[in-house]
Design brief:
The protein is of the alpha/beta class. 32% of the residues lie in helices and 16% in strands. It is globular, with a radius of gyration of 20 Å. The site of magnesium ion (MG) has 5 residues, from loops.
């Protein structure tokens, strides 16, 4: 029996403990929680740590989709127990009994049926994980990598930039650029602004003129502050300013892109979802690069549409993090010329797999480049030593 005749027998949703796809869930000694500017930084009691306001409350969702021959595809995203509930109690009905190739219809039914409480956020994270699991399953049944299902690669390997606290180390490791978290927002006043510029200037000194340096602002600024930061940072060759404003402020992004120096790129979209959300950014000319997370924006099925819309607007798509789920997509798109690697080492000084230790077989950059493996599906296995829990059944 060929793959397209197979049906989906079971859908299961798990939470994961002991390291997972929710990269936010790190200890206090990790650079990812070292006084990073956030939308909550205006409240002093929540300014020092992102965990203090609950960044890690959701945890990881792992979805398994099993075909009638016993083949299992899986995927992970951020969502934890509430997302597991949505899969088991609501979305499973659209999968079980369907053909494994009914990916488009299943996506549409998941989206339409959740509109009354969904549209973005945790519901789209959940839909994304189910969609990625379906692609993983189809790849396994066809014995093909996901990138082959998406039209095939347009280049031999991925060129990567590194996100972390040490762009100077990233340069030594062969990456094309380094993106640092911004530590100070408007609440830290002019002193904070000077500290932001001093860190950039110091890093520029270490890496020389040509290496890309970027600042990730994680939604922490307002238009005025972001405009001033863009002009000050431009003097030190900042390549792009990422996610300066809250995701709902499309008008602010439009204004910021007009205000910023022409050769300093405005990027955003990590917390945006669906083609309609990205349409807001694209039609306003609000970003030079959009950065959807394939585990949050609606999965591969939706990212294909977001990417086509961006291409028609002449906008690059450089997905946020997400390891193999991004790599299989990026390698197939001409308007995704490079990819992000999140440095999950606590001090960002060594390369570790992004979802380590949860996934086995996860490729890592060598000299800043990744060759996407041609193993079936997304080419990774769930580490059986990582404890999982299925909080709900249907
Ligand atoms: Mg970011």
């Amino acid at each position: 029996m060929s793959a397209h005749q197979r049906t989906i027998a079971h859908v299961r949703a798990y939470t994961v403990t002991g390291g997972g796809a929710d990269y936010h869930d790190q200890g206090a000694d990790h650079w990812i929680d070292d006084h990073i500017a956030t939308p909550m930084s205006i409240y002093p009691e929540y300014a020092a740590s992102r965990q203090s306001f609950g960044l890690n409350v959701l945890g990881t969702l792992m979805v398994e989709v099993e075909a009638d021959d016993g083949t299992v595809g899986f995927a992970v995203s951020t969502g934890g127990e509430p997302a597991a509930w949505i899969v088991e109690k609501h979305l499973a009905r659209f999968l079980e009994g369907a053909k494994v190739t009914d990916i488009e219809r299943i996506w549409d039914q998941m989206y339409r049926s959740t509109l009354f409480y969904g549209r973005r956020g945790i519901v789209l994270n959940t839909i994304s994980a189910v969609d990625l699991a379906l692609y993983d399953l189809l790849g396994r049944l066809r014995q093909e990598p996901v990138y082959a299902l998406l039209g095939g690669p347009v280049r031999d390997e991925l060129t990567m930039y590194a996100t972390g606290a040490r762009p100077d180390v990233a340069q030594q490791l062969g990456f094309i650029g380094g993106k640092m978290p911004l530590h100070h927002g408007p609440a830290d006043g002019e002193e904070g602004m000077e500290a932001n510029i001093a860190l950039l200037a110091d890093m520029r000194e270490r890496v020389g003129e040509d290496f890309w340096l970027m600042y990730d602002c994680w939604m922490s600024l307002d238009v005025d502050y972001a405009t001033r930061l863009a002009h000050r940072a431009h003097e030190h060759g900042l390549r792009w300013l990422e996610e300066a404003l809250i995701p709902d402020d499309y008008w602010g992004y439009e204004q910021l892109r007009r205000n910023a120096p022409a050769d300093l790129l405005i990027t955003t979209g990590e917390h945006e979802a669906t083609r309609w959300g990205f349409r807001q950014l694209l039609e306003r000319g609000a970003a030079d690069i959009i950065q959807p997370d394939v585990g949050w924006c609606g999965g591969i099925t939706e990212l294909l549409k977001i990417s086509a819309l961006a291409d028609a607007h002449g906008t690059m798509v450089v997905p946020h993090g997400s390891s193999v789920y991004s790599y299989h997509f990026v390698i197939t798109r001409t308007n995704s010329p490079f990819s992000e690697f999140l440095m999950m080492h606590p001090s960002a000084e060594e390369i570790v797999p992004m979802f380590s230790p949860m996934l086995l077989g996860e490729p890592v950059p060598e000299n800043g480049r990744i060759r996407v493996p041609d193993t079936p599906g997304f080419g990774v296995e769930f580490n059986p030593e990582i404890p999982t829990h299925r909080p709900y059944t249907h």
